[in-house]
Each structure stands twice: as structure tokens, then as C-alpha cells.
């Protein structure tokens, strides 16, 4: 896909979507965007290759690639197929075009969407991302890809504009499965680190020193390396990824694990803790604020 002659539609211009679109524009792609929050269009003022559409249906007209970056599968399905009287984009997608779902979504829903889209002549790729807002800004996201080998090859150059590590993990839906499991592991690590640091503090230890030891020992993980000092011990709790989304992600992972008939006790506990923390801390809480929630039980 050459930037000069590839028209991309990007639906979902949130914290991740905006920097991802900026990287596409820097690479020379022509982008049409849509988000329910029309004020986000101001973030692209002065960008000659960007157009903001009034609706998702209008946005996909003549697009070679439609990218979705949406909160969950129910919203994704509503955008594609329509919901509550709102028309979906499926009937307006150009035959032979690609729909690339970069959201975190249900693997089962993704497989179903792949099948239905293929039946109407649309190529489907699931390509969820990992790395957060910082890596979305600098174009170094890790992107997990599900779909046919042919579709992976055709979209690889496009995905490289937004990510540094691009890994094809299998057929459609496989990427959303791997992403859900990755997010579950990450959430479990966050909760474990929160509990451990608070116990260490109660014992009279310096939590900064304790975390330094974690990072030179087998307990090292994404939380100890990137979140403890920057967002948790500092009290900032502003990593840019919400607790509500983390709670949603671990629910997707739990359902997937249970659907596979596998042992899921720890996943169940992660869902319980995430849901309780989300309800306690309220709307807009950052996922790193799980630390504050756990600490409230001292």
C-alpha cells in the first residue's frame, strides 16, 4: 500500500487513535476520520491530508482501508452492522477493501465478523496494539495481527507506520485472543505488584528500593519497569489507560479462557478485583490507580 494513492478511514479518535492517525499523515496517507466527539477534529487542524466526516458511513466511502479503534465488541459490531436504528458501515465498504480492527475485542466476535465480511467481499484483519499512548505517539507500538498470510503481507507496510513490532499470530481472531491474554497477564502483574509494595511498606521498607530489587530479580514485569515509579508511587495515576478498559480486557480474557474449558481461578480473581476497583474509584480512573484501591484496605 503506497501512501500517495491509499485512502484510509480511521474510526475512533481517542487517546490512541489521534497519535496513530498523526503517524499515518506523516507517512503521506490520506485519512478520513470519524469519532462521536466531533471536537477531536480540531486536533488535526492544518493537516491537508485529513478530513473529518459527520458519520461513520460517510467516512468509509471510497476507502481502501478502514481502521477501527473502538472500546469493545458491542460498539465494533454496532459500527459494522448497525445498531438501534443506526446504519452500519458494512454496506458502504468498497468491495476488495480492508477492514482492520485495531481495538481490543472478543476473539469469537472477530471470527464471526471475518466470516460475514468475507461473504460480502471485504478483507478482514484483526490487529490490536500494545504499548500505550507513548508508543502510539512515536509509532513504536507492538501490533499483533490475525488474518490470512496474504492479507498480512498486504497490510504489513501500513501497520509498520504505527508500530515497531508486527507479529502475525494466525487466522482472523487469533490476534484478539493473544491480546486479551496479554492484557490479562499485565493486569495480574499490576495487582500482584500493588499488593506486594503495600505489604512491603507496611513492614517498614522503602518501596522505591523494593521495586528496584524487583527490577533486578525474577519479579520484574511491565508494572515494575514502567508504572511503579512514574504513576503509582508518585501518586500521578495518569498513564493514559483507563481502569474501565483494563476491567473490560480481563473480562474478555476470562471468557476466552472459560470458553476453551481451561482452569481460570486467577483470571476470575483478576476480574473481581478490577471490577471492584473500577466501581470504587469511579469513572475516568487510570488503571494504575489499582494501587490506590488496594492501599485503601490497609
TrEMBL record:
Domain 3-hydroxyisobutyrate dehydrogenase-like NAD-binding: 173-293
UniProt KW Oxidoreductase keyword: yes
Domain 6-phosphogluconate dehydrogenase NADP-binding residues, every copy: 8-170
Active site, UniProt feature: 179
InterPro entries the UniProt entry points to: 3-OH-isobutyrate_DH-rel_CS, 6-PGluconate_DH-like_C_sf, 6PGD_dom2, 6PGDH_NADP-bd, HIBADH-like_NADP-bd, HIBADH-related, NAD(P)-bd_dom_sf
GO biological processes: organic acid catabolic process
PROSITE patterns xref list: 3_HYDROXYISOBUT_DH (PS00895)
The entry's keywords: NAD, Oxidoreductase
Pfam families cross-referenced by the UniProt entry: NAD_binding_11, NAD_binding_2
GO molecular function: NAD binding; NADP binding; oxidoreductase activity, acting on the CH-OH group of donors, NAD or NADP as acceptor
Top-rank taxon, per record: Bacteria
Protein name as annotated: 2-hydroxy-3-oxopropionate reductase
Lineage, broadest ranks: Bacteria, Pseudomonadati, Pseudomonadota, Betaproteobacteria, Burkholderiales
